[in-house]
Amino acid sequence: MATAEEVIPPEEPHKKSKAEPPQIRQERKPAAAGHLEHRNLRSDEFWRGIPAFSDVTEEEFLDYKWQMKNSLYGEAKLMKLMEGLAPKEFVEDAKRGFSKAPMSVRITPYLLSLIDWDDPWTDPIRTQFMPIGSRLTMDHPMLTLDSLHEQADAPVEGLTHRYRDKALFLPLDTCPVYCRFCTRSYAIGVDTDTVEKVKLRVDPKRWERAFEYIESRPELEDIVISGGDTYNLAFKHIENIGVRLLEIPHIRRIRFATKGLAVMPMKILTDQRWLDGMTRVVELGRKLHKQAVIHTHFNNPNEITEITRRAMNELFERNIVVRNQSVLQRGVNDDPETMSLLVKRLGEVNVHPYYVYQHDMVQGVEDLRTSVQTNVDIEKSVRGVTAGFHTPTFVVDAPGGGGKRGVHSYEHYDRETGISVYTAPSVKPGEHFLYFDPLHSLSDEVRKAWTDKKAQKEMIQAAERAAGVS
């Protein structure tokens, strides 16, 4: 028999626990005006600041034919326009730069008008399109003309097949502008004093050989149509190429690559046939349950104006997806503030930030390259600035054909010698790929070592051993 102490009291009815009142937190302060800078797009008649364009009406300036006709092509036209506009010292500096550049010069009135001509030496738009002799530096000894081995991975002329399910199709070799840093300086534009170009002219017969190869490879699902620049394709070619590819059963996605949206957005506003041709391709893709999109190329927030917004609104209303691929460049976007503003401003005009590339190792633009560490640091700062799905992936397109690797995914990175080692198991298993930081980012001692063949070999072998790939 249980004692009094052992008697178990009857179970009390379940009582609801009373929640503590929520703690009142201090209200978050509104964002400072500077955090909304991405919404402030230039809307003035900025082109009137150029003497040659001072009487150009808005209607004329927004006419893509006027833009094309008045694009500055070659040294002579550009020099004439800069007289009285740029400081004389700058004009002489540009003359020296033109003679050494691997790319011919071509720039639209739109871009030319956005340059700060009071200080053209540091302007980010000038930096991308006009070489100046005082800023050029010695190329890294490991540079090659076709650093990504696009030609080596080409089964037919003008078609690079590197990734298992994706190919790069190059239907032409011209662009509305010529970027100094073009990774295809081996082919794009006319011959220069330093480079004789590979020719990839518009030729439907050549294209058909590429299409036949694509049809023969059922593993291919994704085709990038680049060049050159698809902006320079006639509307009928845009439509013919798009339809031809979409009708191949195993092709699921096509992308039209163009820098045109950044350098001549008015084409979207005034070239109705081109826009309608692109729209028909996108609509056909949707009916076939396939994707057809545009990939473009903004590098600096100054390139995005109210004209850009108007053009992007046209594309957005037609359900045309636009993604952006930037190139990290010294003096253009190599600080967290500029890159963050670019990413936010792209979102403001409904362009999806997709990639930020480490600058490719191409000739004549060593002054534009940054170290891998700079890329890693900027990626850390940009992540969290906006939604994750609107944050670009920062990558190195591995020299030698390794494809795009996350910039921080190196097997080893020697910051002293500037050598980073990458592998690409799904692209080229068993191989490794080396990226070399620009000489200007290294110490005097290491820069000197890179001029010695024996020292070069020793530095590379040391990095390979550290990465476990020697």
Order of strands, widest sheet: 3-4-5-6-7-8-9-10-11
Briefly note the CATH topology name of the largest domain. TIM Barrel
Strand content: 5-15%
Mean pLDDT: 90
CATH class of the largest domain: Alpha Beta
N-to-C CA distance:
83 Å
Protein structure class: alpha/beta
Helix content: 25-40%
User: Domains counted in the coordinates: how many?
Assistant: 3
Largest sheet, described in full?
Answer: 9 strands, mixed
CATH-level-2 architecture of the largest domain: Alpha-Beta Barrel
**H and E order:** HHEHHEHHEEHEHEHHHEHEHEHEEEEEHH
Characterize the overall form: globular
Counting DSSP H or I runs of 4 or more residues, the number of helices is: 16
